[in-house]
Write a structure and sequence with these properties.
Layout (H helix, E strand, L loop, with lengths): L1 E2 L12 E6 L16 E2 L5 E2 L1 E9 L4 E8 L24 H23 L6 H9 L5 H21 L1 H8 L1 H26 L15 H16 L6 H4 L21 H17 L2 H29 L1 H8 L7 H4 L16 H15 L1 H11 L2
Antiparallel strand pairs: 1-5, 2-6, 3-4, 5-6
Length: about 375
């Protein structure tokens, strides 16, 4: 029998084995405290990180493996979750079949009630927003603003909403309102991206396309940490407010903001007009607000654990690493060799290949 746990405590320099004998294999593991305070001869404290807990039935002995590191390095225990961790053997075919069914139903309802001009409300919504001004820049900004208010507003109400109607029901409500607004904003941008005032034209600059393509490609690894658990996105699994700490989070605590800024810079430089600037201004402002709002919500949900993670991560990319608050493991690259990141790679390439089809489909809606 084996069990594992994480606890935060003081540290020395090498691994040790600590044997705790008991009269029964069923001894309550809670007797082992979640934290230890050890004083050395110099009366300095060190932190101990409990990695594994193994119970031997024959010997009725618990063997605790203790990982210890130098207290002077100032590292504390791992409190957040291991992002993008995916165990294929723990997956259930029934869950993914259910996910496929839910996705199909959502796309069907989205098409009938929003996208299809004959049955949906999407065109009427876009026309209503556009009626405020003949300027495509104003319409673009208003669409982005409406989406931002609804998306961030519902996110801010998540704690109360989940207590009121449950995690899955709130996720359905959140997606049911946010998704149509996101589709409207994206379609309008595609259809009107070359309207407005042309401010610069750099598309003939050698290697610019390749540079901006690479920037855009990398941005998607920051943009979509939600793919860490697609089953939660579709409410197949109960949605949770995760406190990630590895992978892309080591670089920046707010990868979606960084990814959005990268995406906006790449597209605005390539398009070079006032509509692109209006869209980018709205999106970046929304995500900058999300930095503050996201930290506030995580602090409310996770308390001191978030404050600890906050101290060893940063908003600006690589800042915590350069300041020594975040220490990358030698095999850091392995934190990206996981299925969710592979999925992001394939989806990003797929979206790029599908650009002509997206433009054609958007043009056919006349939004």
């Amino acid at each position: 029998m084996a069990a594992s746990g994480l606890l935060s405590v003081p540290l020395c320099s090498q691994y040790r084995l600590l044997r705790l004998r008991s009269n029964s294999i069923h001894t309550n593991l809670s007797r082992v405290s979640s934290s230890f305070l050890v004083k050395d001869n110099a009366s300095t404290s060190s932190s101990i990180n409990l990695l594994t807990f193994i119970a031997s039935q024959k010997r009725k002995t618990f063997v605790v493996r203790i990982a210890e590191t130098d207290a002077e390095e100032g590292e504390s225990s791992f409190l957040g979750e291991n992002s993008a961790e995916f165990d294929l053997y723990k997956q259930k075919i029934s869950s993914w079949a259910y996910f496929t069914g839910v996705l199909g139903v959502v796309l069907y309802l989205l098409n009938v009630f929003w996208i299809d001009n004959q049955t949906g409300f999407g065109k009427s919504f876009v026309d209503a927003v556009s009626s405020f001004s003949d300027s495509p820049e104003v319409a673009m900004f208003l669409l982005t603003l409406i989406f931002a208010i609804v998306h961030s507003g519902l996110a801010s109400l998540r704690n109360k909403g989940e207590k009121l109607i449950g995690e899955r029901a709130f996720r359905v409500l959140f997606a049911g309102i946010s998704l149509p607004l996101a589709v409207s904003t994206i379609v309008y941008f595609i259809n009107h991206r070359y309207d407005g005032v042309q401010l610069w034209q750099l598309q003939s600059v050698p290697w610019l396309h390749e540079l901006l393509w690479l920037t855009n490609f990398i941005s998607f690894f920051f943009l979509y940490p939600s793919t860490f658990n697609l089953l939660e996105v579709a409410a197949v699994d109960k949605p949770k407010m995760h406190l990630w700490e590895t992978g892309i989070i080591r670089i920046t605590r707010h990868p979606q903001m960084v990814g959005q800024v990268m995406w906006c810079i790449a597209h605005t430089m390539w398009i070079g007009n006032s509509v692109a600037i209006a869209a980018s201004f709205g999106l970046i402002t929304h995500h900058l607000f999300g930095v503050w709002n996201g930290d506030r919500r995580l602090a409310e949900r996770h308390g001191e654990a978030f404050e600890t993670v906050k101290q060893r991560t940063s908003i600006l990319p690589f800042a915590a690493i350069l300041e020594g608050r975040q220490k990358l493991p030698q095999d850091y690259y392995k934190e990206f060799l996981r299925l969710p990141y592979l999925s992001i790679t394939l989806i990003t390439l797929g979206i790029y290949i599908a650009h002509p089809f997206m433009r054609a489909a958007s043009a056919g809606l006349h939004w």
